[in-house]
Every structure is written in C-alpha cells, then in structure tokens.
Amino acid sequence: MDNEIEDDFIKSFKPLLEQIQQLQEQAYYVYKPQIEHLIETKTKDENAIGRLLDHLLDNCGNDKVLLLYKKLCRYYWDIDPVATAFYIQSYREMWDDETTIDEI
C-alpha cells in the first residue's frame, strides 16, 4: 500500500515537471537573441548582464540554457571577474550535483 501511495505521489509531480521543462525551453528562445545582441554590440552594462544571468540561472536545468549561461559568463569575465565568479558559484550551489562538470 505504501508503494502505491508513493507512486501516486511521484506521478502527481509529472505534469509540473513537464511544465518546468517547457518553460526552460522557452527561456532559451527568449534569452538567446538578447545575449547574442549584448555580445555582438560589446555591451558593458553590468546591470543588463546581471539581469540576464539571474534569469538564466533559474533555467540552467536545460542544457541549452546552460550553454547560454556559460557563454555569457565567459563574456562577462573580462568586464567583471568578481561578479562572474559569483555567478559561477551560484550555478554550482543551485545546480551542481557533486559530480565534476565542465568548467564554465
């Protein structure tokens, strides 16, 4: 009986997880052109970069969003390495699963 309750409980989260995945996928398409424009125009606006990194961080469970996050961190490093290090650490605290990941 306990296994049935546990299975039902887990199944109840499936729609929510699917919605999260869809939102993360949408985030990629929303933020990709913004990041490309920011980098192409060599924008140095730290507030704009920080806002994008904040939004991306929430969606780094998606591999494509994670690639955007890494790309923006690499760009931001030359502008503000201390702030970039903060974002790298924030990613690790939020998403790292104790296994080795590629360096940002």
Structural summary, described in words:
The chain is mostly helical and 104 residues long. The protein has one domain (2-95). Helix content is 78%, strand content 0%. α1 (2-40) packs parallel to α3 (63-77), α2 runs parallel beside α4 and α3 (63-77) packs antiparallel against α4.
Write a concise keyword list for the protein shown above:
104 residues; mainly alpha; 78% helix
Q: Helical percent range?
A: over 70%
Average per-residue pLDDT, rounded, comes to 87
**Helix and strand string, N-terminal first?**
HHHH
| Amino- and carboxy-terminal Cα gap | 46 Å
Assembly type of the chains comes to single chain
Secondary-structure-derived class: mainly alpha
Biggest beta-sheet profile? none
Brief rundown of the structure:
This protein has 104 residues and is mainly alpha-helical.
Topology (elements, then pairings):
Blueprint: H1 2-40, H2 46-57, H3 63-77, H4 81-95
Helix pairs in contact: 1-2, 1-3, 2-3, 2-4, 3-4
